[in-house]
Automatic annotation (TrEMBL), chain B:
It is a multi-pass membrane protein. GO terms for molecular function: heme binding; metal ion binding. This is Succinate dehydrogenase hydrophobic membrane anchor subunit. Pathway: Carbohydrate metabolism; tricarboxylic acid cycle. It is found in: Membrane. Keywords: Electron transport, Heme, Iron, Membrane, Metal-binding, Transmembrane, Transmembrane helix, Transport, Tricarboxylic acid cycle. It comes from Croceicoccus mobilis. Its cofactor is heme.
Length: 132, 126
């Protein structure tokens, strides 16, 4: 690999296989997965949504028929779960940022609660869409 | 600067002097996303139906259009910052530079497209 100098010598982050799994590790990787899913799929659908409306009734109908198809619904469920999961772990990040919640017992408990809340809110959201 | 131990390889390099700013912006835009995406979620859940007329009527109001433009700016900025962190974790050297350059170009262009679309809707161009 030669002998890089300066910034090039900074080590990279260890990959997934290096870490020991635990509740905190699970929220952390889910935060990354859901954040990037939102950034790629979520923002793509959002752009298509506003772009299609700007394009007029015909282009909006194309958007609507694709997103209303079974595959479209699965994508939307995935995006909504990504949002609620990322929202919960994001709030957890902000709490940890002020220095709270590092005791092993509490940290583990809230890690699990974060993941469960993300799933619960997704179910609640779709219940409202379908039932109300 | 040693080559042997891992700590020896990073000691003395110092910080990149941009980290704290990046970190803080990630937090500011996170709060922006929190408010704005929840606004979108509630708005969509409360629309009576998803016909073109309904959705167009909703998004063309000055309030909705403003919120949507802010939402696009906040989410694209936050996503760009976040994806840069991921790239920095797994790529080094020229690959890292190229990936971040591409990321910036793509997110800036797409974000502008989104904002222009909303402005067009708000001004009744469609
Ligand atoms: C809905 C649009 C959103 C998108 C597209 C998005 C995207 C991302 C991405 C790609 C990352 C980087 C993940 C990583 O490096 O592992 C990230 C990180 C982060 N997100 Fe979001 N996010 C969104 C909403 C939110 C919300 C609502 C919050 C807060 C309540 C939030 C809080 C955070 C925080 C605190 C980080 C930094 C984590 C760290 O420092 O490691 N995000 N986001």
């Amino acid at each position: 690999m030669g002998h890089p100098t300066g910034a090039a010598k900074r080590p990279l982050s260890p990959h997934l296989s290096i870490w020991k799994w635990g509740p905190a590790m699970a929220v952390s990787i889910l935060h990354r997965v859901s954040g990037n899913a939102l950034a790629v799929a979520g923002l793509a659908v959002l752009l298509w949504f506003v772009g299609a409306i700007a394009g007029g009734a015909a282009s909006y109908e194309t958007f609507q028929s694709v997103m209303g198809s079974p595959i479209g619904i699965i994508v939307l469920i995935g995006i909504s779960w990504s949002f609620f999961n990322h929202l919960m772990s994001g709030i957890r990040h902000l709490v940890l940022d002020v220095g709270a919640g590092y005791e092993v017992e509490r940290n583990n408990r809230w890690s699990v609660i974060t993941i469960l809340l993300g799933i619960l809110l997704t179910a609640l959201f779709w219940a409202v869409i379908i039932l109300v | 600067m040693g080559n042997g131990t891992r700590i020896g390889r990073v000691r003395g390099l110092g910080s990149a002097h941009e980290g704290a700013h990046h970190w803080l912006l990630q937090r500011f835009t996170a709060i922006g996303n929190l408010i704005l995406v929840l606004w979108l979620v509630f708005s969509l859940a409360m629309l009576p139906d998803y016909s073109f007329a309904t959705v167009y009527g909703w998004l063309s109001s000055p309030f909705s259009a403003t919120a949507m433009v802010l939402l696009i700016i906040s989410t694209f900025w936050h996503a760009r910052l976040g994806m840069q962190v991921m790239i920095e974790d797994y790529l080094g050297g020229a690959n890292r530079f190229a990936a971040i350059l591409l990321l910036n170009l793509v997110f800036l262009s797409l974000g502008v497209f989104g904002v222009i679309s909303v402005i067009r809707i708000a001004l009744g161009g469609a």
